[in-house]
What does this fold into?
Amino acid sequence: MPWKPQTPCRIPSCSNLVDRGQLCSVHRGKITVICGLPGSGKSTWVKKQSRCGDVVWDFDILFIALTGLSRSERPDECIPLVQAMRNGLILGLIDHSIERDVWIIVTREDDAKDIAERLNGKLICLTITEQVRQERLAKR
It folds into this structure.
């Protein structure tokens, strides 16, 4: 791996050395990746844990915003577009750390593990009984 020159953290009063243009661990927001099956409570859990101004990436919310369709209407051709947005966020966070906390909601546990590892983030997997999950999905 090529040597990268270290520079002070982007916070003016901080002298901690980091890769150019980054924030030190004291000033960098935490990254949390939440995974679980549909209906497991991922979005609700993040709403309760996050603060105003945090960055929240939620596939369902972005899909609805992009297409104007409901949760139950998901044209397969649009799914890769929303996934590309997630990949863009991940690359952006690798290249440019931010002060805000970041929450990334993912269904597949293997994807969540990969994202958490790439971003040096915390992984939280939500599990509930299948009966409760089905009851929640029926209410949507």
User: Anything to note?
Assistant: The chain is about 40% helix and 15% strand. Residues 32 and 122 are 5 Å apart (CA to CA). The chain has a mean pLDDT of 88. Strands lie at 6-8, 17-19, 31-35, 55-58, 102-106, 122-125.
